[in-house]
Amino acid sequence: MDNEHKKIKIGWFTFSCCEDNTIVMTEIMNDHWQEWKKLFDFRHANVLKSKNILDELDIAFVEGAIASEKHAEKLREIREKSKKLVAVGACAVVGMPAAQRNYFNEQQKQEIEFLVARFAALPKVLKVSDVVKVDAEVGGCPMDPDKFLTAVAGLVEELKKV
Ligand code: SF4
């Protein structure tokens, strides 16, 4: 088996989110580039490349809340194709603050009704674990780089045993 095939296949996906965690991940990458390029094959990461592949992944990182059925379908597809799935950042882990419309009063709900319809949004915004099984979570926003690296190291060890 060549080196490229032994690498851990990574995907990075963003749903309803302002991408603070993506920025942190790229900053971490600046420091860890040399070691990561030997270890990881970034197969799907819109922030890093324009040509992305979603076939089979070892680890999928998911950022942002799930706001529409289209999001939920995509997330289920990612789950099916990934050995491990990690929710990163506050909105993926607990839904908030992206899910603040869930707590709107009746008048506020009426005011945004046309937007919910226009974007075919779900009645309630969901966290990632409301839709699929999650293997690890790195909460906070932006995520804590040390906690992210600890989660990655733990998953890499687990995958070596598979
Ligand atoms: S607060 Fe939520 S929407 Fe904003 S960057 Fe963080 S995870 Fe994304």
UniProtKB/TrEMBL annotation:
Q: Which organism is it from?
A: Candidatus Sungbacteria bacterium RIFCSPLOWO2_12_FULL_41_11
Per the record, the domain of life is Bacteria
Which one Pfam family would you cite for this protein?
A: Oxidored_q6
User: What's in the keyword line of the UniProt record?
Assistant: Oxidoreductase
Q: Which GO terms describe its molecular function?
A: iron-sulfur cluster binding; oxidoreductase activity
Cross-referenced SUPFAM superfamilies: HydA/Nqo6-like
Q: What is this protein called?
A: NADH:ubiquinone oxidoreductase-like 20kDa subunit domain-containing protein
InterPro entries cross-referenced by the UniProt entry: Hydrogenase_assoc-protein, NADH_UbQ_OxRdtase-like_20kDa, NiFe_Hase_small_N_sf
* Span of domain NADH:ubiquinone oxidoreductase-like 20kDa subunit: 18-153
